[in-house]
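Weekly sync, protein design subgroup
Attendees: M.S., D.O., the rotation student, P.L. (late)

Item 1: inverse folding check
M.S. brought a backbone from last month's batch and wanted to see whether the design step gives back something sensible before we order anything. D.O. pointed out we never logged the input encoding, so this time it goes straight into the notes. Structure tokens as presented (291 positions):
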């Protein structure tokens, strides 16, 4: 993942901003609910990208991956919308508690820019629904040049999105967050439609760390810099998640990328170990000898 990549990560202040007061307000509305659902994974299961992760002789990469982690951020669907047969094949290769988090195809988000996409959305969501209980959350990622001047178009898209399918949204253009009034209008729209706000932690775009949740779900896309600081940054996230959980956080979806993806499983394993220790969880990870 090259988005937000910098040449000298040692020069970046990776300190996480304080939590938005509105985030804490929203979470407190869910404080009395005891369940805490946590899914952590990588963005890909491709052997070429994750060189060294798979044992020699691995016959099926997804089958192996899904016994090491409990989820995948499914970027493959961004490039090619899957058929229902493909979805069922993926589903049947994975354990009962595994979940997929598919990205909406670029034909909808980037090429059509959300205009006249009803048929494409219906075809995509109809097929994705075949994940059934293994569907975690769909997410929409807009192009860097999609700006707030088209907020109403985004609102219309969200209002028409199938209500039975959970959705998260990531906008990237700096104008969404540089003006507090625009940012607030965007966040309120997500709250209105009960859409989860994606947070992105990457070196070159610290403005995407708005620390604003719009549902009691934290969907975080973490991009390591292939630098020693990657691990201390994850430690800081543990402290934030502890605060959010105490306030009322219900679900955590945390996906780890790297500029050079080969190290992603190592970071994900480390993070899962910290989560398990801090929250008394038993999230599956590679160091447990799974196969």
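Designed sequence read out in the meeting:
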């Amino acid at each position: 993942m090259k988005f937000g990549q910098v040449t000298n990560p040692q020069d970046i202040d990776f300190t996480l901003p304080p939590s938005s007061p509105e985030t804490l307000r929203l979470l407190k509305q869910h404080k009395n609910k005891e369940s805490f659902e946590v899914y952590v994974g990588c963005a890909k299961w491709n052997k070429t990208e994750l060189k060294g992760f798979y044992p020699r002789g691995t016959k099926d990469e997804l089958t192996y991956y899904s016994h090491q982690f409990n989820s995948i951020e499914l970027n493959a669907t961004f490039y090619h919308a899957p058929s229902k047969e493909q979805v069922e094949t993926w589903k049947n290769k994975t354990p009962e508690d595994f979940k997929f988090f598919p990205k909406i195809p670029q034909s909808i988000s980037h090429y059509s820019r959300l205009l006249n996409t009803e048929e494409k959305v219906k075809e995509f969501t109809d097929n994705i629904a075949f994940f059934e209980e293994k569907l975690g959350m769909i997410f929409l990622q807009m192009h860097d040049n999609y700006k707030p001047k088209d907020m109403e178009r985004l609102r219309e898209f969200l209002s028409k999105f199938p209500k039975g399918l959970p959705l998260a949204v990531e906008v990237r253009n700096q104008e969404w967050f540089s003006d507090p009034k625009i940012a607030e209008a965007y966040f309120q729209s997500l709250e209105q439609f009960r859409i989860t706000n994606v947070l992105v932690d990457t070196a070159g775009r610290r403005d995407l760390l708005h620390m604003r949740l719009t549902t009691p779900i934290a969907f975080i896309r973490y991009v390591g810099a292939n630098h020693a600081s990657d691990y201390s940054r994850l430690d800081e996230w543990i402290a934030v998640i502890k605060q959010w959980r105490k306030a009322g956080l219900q679900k955590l979806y945390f996906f780890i990328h790297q500029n050079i993806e080969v190290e992603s499983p190592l970071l994900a394993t480390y993070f899962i170990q910290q989560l398990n220790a801090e929250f008394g969880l038993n999230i599956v990870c590679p160091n447990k000898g799974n196969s």
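Discussion: Residues 22-284 form a domain with the TIM Barrel fold (CATH 3.20.20.410). The chain has one domain: 22-284.
Action: P.L. to compare against the previous round before Friday.
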